[in-house]
Amino acid sequence: MATSASKRRGGKKAESSHNGDSEEDLEIVSVLASKKGRQKAEQAKKQLDEECQNIQRQLLQAGRDFVTRHTNEVDQITRRHTQRMEELHEERNDLLKKISSESDKLMNTYTLSTETITKNRDAEKSLLQELVLILKDSFSDIVRQMDQEAAKESPSHTDNKTSTRKKNQPADTPTKTPKYPNKSITVNPPPVSNHDGNPTMNARKRRGGAATGTENDGNDLEGEEQDVRERQVQRRRKADF
C-alpha cells in the first residue's frame, strides 16, 4: 500500500514535472489572471461610467437646446403678435381719423347747403313780395284807368253827347242815338275761362241774355264792364294769395 502510494506520488511528481507546471505556478497564474480580470472589469466600468456621463451630458445639452429653441420661437411669435397688434391699432386710428374728417366734411357741406337753400328761399320770397307789390300797383293803375273810362262812358256823359248831336243835326233828319257809345274803345283784359270754356256766354247767361253775340240789349255794355271788374277782383285776390 505504501509503496503504491509512493509510486502514485512519485508518478504524479514525475507527471507534473513532465508537464512543466506546478501547483504554485497554477496559483500564480490564477492570481495574475484575477488581477487582469479586475483591471479589465475596472476599465470596462470606467468606460461605462464615461459613456453614461457622456450620455447624460448629451441629454442635458439636448434639453437645454430644446428649451432655448422653444423659448426663441415663443419670443418670435410674441414679437410678431405684438407688432401685428400695433399695426392693427395704427390702422384703426387712421380709419377713425378718416371717418371723423369725412364726417366733418359732410357736416360742413350740409351746413353750407342748408344756408344756401335758406338764402335762396329768402331771396325768392323777397322777389315774390316785390313782384306782388308791382302787380298790385299795376292792377290798381289798371283799375283806376278802367274806372276813369267807365266814368267817361256813364249815361249822363252819353246824354250830353246825344243832346249836342241833336242840336247840330237838321230838323228833317231823324236822330238815332246809338245804344253803345264808345264801345269800340273799351279795353277788355283776357277773359277768365269758366266751367264750359266760354266766358262771354257765361257772362251773358248770368245777365239773362242770349249767347249769340249779335243782340242789342241795353244792359250789354254794363254787363261787360261788370265782367271786367269781376275779373280784376279775381286777379287781385290771386295776386294777394
Supply database-style keywords.
about 0% strand; single chain; 5 helices; about 240 residues; mainly alpha; about 80% helix
Summed up, what is this model?
This protein is mainly α and 241 residues long. It has helices at 2-19, 23-152, 155-168, 199-207, 220-240. 2% of the residues are buried.
In round numbers, the mean pLDDT is 72
Largest beta-sheet characterization: none
Radius of gyration: 73 Å
Helix/strand-derived category reads: mainly alpha
Shape: rod-shaped
Strand content: under 5%
| Low confidence ranges | 1-20, 169-174, 178-187, 191-217
* Counted beta strands: 0
Continuous helix count: 5
Helix content: over 70%
- Euclidean distance between termini CA atoms: 177 Å
Q: Secondary-structure element sequence?
A: HHHHH
Describe it for me?
The chain is mainly alpha-helical and 241 residues long. It has helices at residues 2-19, 23-152, 155-168, 199-207, 220-240. The longest helix is centred in the middle third of the chain and has 130 residues, at 23-152. The termini are far apart. Residues 1-26, 147-241 are annotated as: Disordered.
